[in-house]
Amino acid sequence: RRQDLLCRVAGDRLVVLLPNTGERQAQGLALELQHAVQSLAHKTRQQGERLQLAATTAVVMALQESPHELLKRLNIGLARAKQPLAKSA
């Protein structure tokens, strides 16, 4: 969508800003992004290995808070979303 904004925050962390979007719709878009990344694969040059990609997503709704506080809540959400992955590995 034209009004959405994708930003690289640090390293492999990206944030998508979705103005005028409800939580349910944002969760649906996050799931679509997660599936899109999973459908990608990277092939190495040297051995031709195929590396599967994965993404962890979290949705937080902006409240009347600073960008720093919003990113803090997002990082907490991402940490929670990754916990089941760490336990099964």
Query: How does the helix and strand content classify structurally?
Result: alpha+beta
**What overall geometry do the principal axes of the alpha carbons give?**
elongated
Strand content: 15-25%
Helix content: 40-55%
Q: Could you tell me the mean pLDDT?
A: 85
Radius of gyration: 15 Å
Tally of alpha and pi helices: 2
| Total number of domains | 1
N-to-C span = 36 Å
Strands, total number: 4
Characterize the largest beta sheet: strand count, sense, and whether it forms a barrel.
2 strands, antiparallel
**Uncertain residue ranges:** none
Helix/strand order: EEHEEH
With strands numbered from the N-terminus, the spatial order across the biggest sheet is 1-2
Features:
elongated, alpha+beta, two-stranded antiparallel sheet, 43% helix, 19% strand, 89 residues
Task: Give a structural overview.
There is one protein chain. The mean pLDDT is 85. The protein has a two-stranded antiparallel sheet with strand order 1-2. Strands 3-4 form a two-stranded antiparallel ribbon. The longest helix has 22 residues, at 67-88. The chain is 43% helix and 19% strand. The chain has one domain (5-88). The chain is of the alpha+beta class.
Summarize the structure.
This protein has helices at 23-38, 67-88, and strands at residues 5-10, 13-17, 41-43, 50-52.
Give the topology, please:
Elements: E1 5-10, E2 13-17, H1 23-38, E3 41-43, E4 50-52, H2 67-88
Antiparallel strand pairs: 1-2, 3-4
